[in-house]
């Protein structure tokens, strides 16, 4: 966790994930009304992936808004929950 992708020679797989904006404060079903609409989210997603690539990091992309099956191996276990006031 002390080294960047550039430091380690790593690569990035950039996928969109609107579920990160889930509101679980009430009820049994999360709400996603705080997620950006696709007209805002898609350009932000592309800009992020472009910025990674411009840094020289090998960058693969998913398809924005698609249902994707992603497999990975984490070097961990580490889970960091970042909770901020919205």
UniProtKB/TrEMBL annotation:
GO CC, sorted alphabetically, is: cytoplasm
Domain of life the protein comes from: Bacteria
Q: What GO terms are given for molecular function?
A: D-tyrosyl-tRNA(Tyr) deacylase activity
Q: Name the family the entry cites.
A: Belongs to the DTD family.
Task: State the PANTHER family in the record.
Answer: D-AMINOACYL-TRNA DEACYLASE 1, D-TYROSYL-TRNA TYR DEACYLASE
Q: Under which name does UniProt file this protein?
A: D-tyrosyl-tRNA(Tyr) deacylase
What's the source species for this entry?
Primorskyibacter flagellatus
UniProt lineage: Bacteria, Pseudomonadati, Pseudomonadota, Alphaproteobacteria, Rhodobacterales
């Amino acid at each position: 966790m002390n080294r960047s992708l550039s430091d380690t020679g790593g690569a990035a797989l950039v996928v969109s994930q609107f579920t990160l904006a889930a509101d679980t404060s009430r009820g049994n079903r999360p709400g996603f009304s705080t997620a950006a609409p696709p007209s805002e989210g898609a350009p932000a997603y592309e800009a992020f992936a472009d910025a990674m690539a411009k840094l020289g990091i090998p960058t693969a992309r998913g398809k924005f808004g698609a249902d994707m099956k992603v497999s990975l191996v984490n070097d961990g276990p580490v889970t960091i929950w970042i909770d901020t006031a919205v």
